[in-house]
Amino acid sequence: MSVAPEMDNLDTVKANGGTGIRFRDPQVIGAGERGNAYDVSGSPSPSKDHHPRGALHRKLLERKVTWILATALTVLLCVAIAQPAACHHVDRCRQEHARIQDLRSYSGYITAALASVMLHELASVILTHRTARKAIHLIPNIRESLLPSVLLCITFFVLILENLALVIGETPWFAHAANLGHPELDGQPVYTVFYAEWLINVPILLILAGSIALQRPTPEVAEPLVVTNVYIVFAWVAHFVSNPGIRYFLVALSFLMYFRASWSMCRWVWNWHLENSDDHHILGRPLLTFVLILVFGIYGAVYVSRLHGGVSYRDDRIFFTTMNFTTKLFASMTLAGIRSSEFQEVLLSMLANTQTSFKRSLKYEDTTPMLED
């Protein structure tokens, strides 16, 4: 049975002396009805534009420099106001950090596991790139399917650096001393290295969940991304505010911003569902978004418990070390599933839109030599 090609999605090309076809807007990973969803640099989609470009805030959100500047200015302002003391300059903080040196081996195991996963993703990038070069004349945007693996390699590399700091850092230069106006909690180490890692990796996770998995446009993804980075900084600096009123204001503001960002992420799923009504399985593309919302909420609960002494700084470090690793590993597994299913869709689409009839012939006279009498 022959299948008529969808001419709206095909171009006729000449290559190697012959005539063939190629997809004008291929459905590689992350490419949906609106075209290439991997473009997080602010370039408009070549097929459709659902958002007006006249709004100034949208134009600003389209630029990655806006994300960086918003985060950097928030950090500088909070540090200038709170002036947190480095842990290695405070005797009690230095002593408390020395009491949990047995956790260095745990971070070492995490580092080894991260290195293995990163090498796996890196090998996937290299091998896929070598294979993609052979099909560029058929699927010109196929290289963009490498972006998820590249971003995951970056997240794993940042996590490796974080855990290496915890492994080799006898001097706690990567931590600050808490200043909560409470004699039992003041001077305990606050591991700033975790918050620094989140400021880099959380935006990448949001890009993976929004821009790649759900094919959302850049301004739609950028809003919760910037909001999340700002409330991460507010949550960190609250550890160094002795005034209860100001501290709880920062904590409350952080949670309000979390709920705002979570609502925006739920809107990703809703908008994606409206554009892809035939694909609404929760274990598909929306899964990573919902998991991130849940994980960030759990992080917040542990954070508040630590702030009030319900969770010790030792347990706090174990929890964040473990969850940082498992969350990124889950993102890698989820995107691997999406990649696998969409590569199959690409192959099926290419076969369905060709004029060639594929036949399978069977030779019933073939026998297996080892089974002959």
From TrEMBL:
Chain residue ranges for the region called Disordered: 1-25, 34-53
Identify its membrane topology class. Multi-pass membrane protein
Where mainly found? Answer: membrane
Q: Where in the cell is it found?
A: Membrane
| Swiss-Prot/TrEMBL keywords | Membrane, Transmembrane, Transmembrane helix
Any matching Pfam family: Bac_rhodopsin
TM ranges: 65-86, 106-128, 149-169, 189-214, 221-242, 282-305
Sorted alphabetically, the Gene Ontology cellular component annotations on this record are:
membrane
Q: Which family does it belong to?
A: Belongs to the archaeal/bacterial/fungal opsin family.
What is this protein identified as?
A: Pentatricopeptide repeat-containing protein, chloroplastic
